[in-house]
Design brief:
20 helices, mainly alpha, globular, about 80% helix
Length: about 500
């Protein structure tokens, strides 16, 4: 049985060593958010310098999503079986190499390959980092406090990356690759010193579910690839339909394998847990809605309004500022007082209100009255919901399954944006007027803005209905689970 290697931190206060560990883990998550948003700002410069077509250029982003979303479940289970610290360190090392290769790339193909490898490394880093927190901090105030701080850094990194990416791109797009190398190297050195060890579980190699890992990874890779390519191939095309059928067949095989496996990659009972399912649906709605909205706003600000990449980043910056200032301070106390479901509901409702406020945007809408209130509301949404989502997705999960739980919630955080972006692209293409004038572009963007609103409302409905059901029928302890837990702790 794997142990954390250190005694879990109790109480709401975190000691110096605990803060050091948390700082390193936050640094890795901050780096992931920063890295993704910086690359988005630099895309036009990368395409111009390497003579990449728009179709190939979008794979600079899609390649990362493919690697990240495709390998998250495998990354989570590998952390559980092979050691969380070990997987965290190795994957950070891969990030350093892959990002460096991207910075020196002379062709678009090399950049895309580097982004895919970076995504794969993040797929192992993210669940390992989350499970280190959930096994190093005792469930309750200490863990809630740690997860609130941890979650805030990801959103802050993404927002700050839009500004930093614009500044670095003005020097050279290669700096959006080299700067993360330096940050990752510092984080890696800190992790060697501060992150607690976790010995590999006995018999991990013999018990590793190879067939389950292969089928789960293949299904996720094909699903993400299909979502990314659906706008280009067409949702009603034979290619898209065939790919979705293929995903379903592979998942069916995966379920059969997991039912018979002695040590399954994912225990199927985990996928039947109501709180876990609701947390993952809400995660898809929260991040999917925001990434979709950000995609639309970027087109609006740069193509309709003629703003620069730096101006665009500064316009979105209030979102990250709100998250950085509020989330570490309010999320944990409010979760302790109200629980996770009300916090998630408040966050998704705030996001829905933000997207509703953006619907009337026009060619001459003022920033102070048009976009700024929405940016603040989105910041509040992540401050309220992002940390509680991580708490809800990992609470009550056995220590040996924390990596898988972390992989599941991070998979949802990736699938949500991929699905929403695919739908938004289809809606924008259907409603955009003829030509490339600002008026023509605005027609499609306005219609597409309804998608994040609809997705957020779905998340609100799922969370609200779950809360109603819980008030009507108090949840009873699972006697079988309690018996297993008693044997585990005896």
């Amino acid at each position: 049985m794997e142990t954390s290697g250190t005694t879990a931190v109790e109480g709401a206060r975190l000691g110096g060593r605990a803060w050091g560990t948390l700082l390193v883990l936050c640094g890795a998550l901050f780096l992931d958010g920063l890295d993704v948003s910086m690359k988005g700002v630099a895309l036009p410069s990368i395409g111009a310098d390497l003579s990449m077509s728009p179709r190939s250029l979008q794979w600079v982003m899609s390649g990362y999503v493919l690697g990240f979303g495709g390998f998250l479940l495998l990354g989570g289970r590998a952390a559980d079986l092979l050691g969380r610290r070990r997987m965290f360190l190795v994957s950070l090392g891969v990030f350093v190499v892959a990002s460096g290769v991207g910075g020196f790339a002379g062709t678009g193909e090399v950049v895309i390959a580097a982004r895919f490898l970076t995504g794969v490394s993040a797929a192992f880093t993210a669940p390992a980092g989350l499970s280190i927190i959930t096994t190093s901090f005792a469930e309750g105030p200490a863990r809630n406090r740690a997860l609130s701080v941890y979650s805030a850094t990801g959103a802050s990194g993404f927002a700050l990356g839009l500004v930093v990416g614009g500044l670095l791109t003005d020097m050279s797009w290669r700096w959006v690759f080299f700067a993360p190398v330096l940050m990752a190297a510092v984080t890696l050195l800190g992790a060697l010193w501060l992150v607690p060890g976790s010995p590999r579980r006995a018999g991990a190699r013999q018990g590793f579910d190879v067939a389950g890992a292969v089928t789960a990874t293949a299904a996720m890779l094909l699903l993400v690839f299909t979502l990314v390519q659906a706008p280009e191939a067409g949702w009603d095309s034979v290619r898209t339909a065939g790919s979705l059928v293929g995903v379903g067949l592979i998942l069916a095989v995966f379920v059969l394998i997991e039912r018979r496996a002695r040590t399954p990659l994912v225990r199927l009972g985990l996928l039947r847990s109501g709180p876990v399912i609701r947390a993952n649906i809400a995660a898809m709605a929260l991040l999917g809605g925001w990434v979709g909205c950000l995609f639309i706003l970027t087109l609006y600000m740069q193509q309709v309004r003629g703003w620069s990449a730096l101006q665009t980043g500064l316009a979105v910056c209030p979102t990250g500022t709100v998250v950085a200032l509020l989330a570490p301070r309010i999320a944990a106390p409010l979760v302790g007082r109200f629980g996770t479901s009300p916090m998630i509901l408040a966050g998704l409702s705030s996001a829905a209100l933000a997207y509703a406020l953006l619907l009337p945007l026009g060619r001459n809408s003022g920033y102070a009255t048009g976009m700024f209130p929405a940016m603040v509301l989105v910041g509040l949404a992540f401050s309220f919901a992002y940390g509680p989502l991580n708490i809800a997705a990992t609470s009550g999960i056995a220590a040996e399954e924390q990596g898988v739980a972390g992989g599941l919630i991070n998979t949802s955080f990736q699938l949500g944006p991929a699905l929403v972006l695919a739908v938004i692209t289809a809606v924008n293409d259907a409603y955009a007027g003829p030509g490339i004038s600002p008026s023509a572009l605005l027609g499609g963007l306005r219609a597409a803005l309804a998608v994040p609103l609809g997705v957020s409302l779905i998340g609100v409905a799922v969370t609200a209905l779950a809360g109603t059901g819980q008030r009507r029928r108090p949840r009873r302890p699972d006697r079988a689970h309690l018996a297993r837990q008693s044997l585990h702790t005896s």
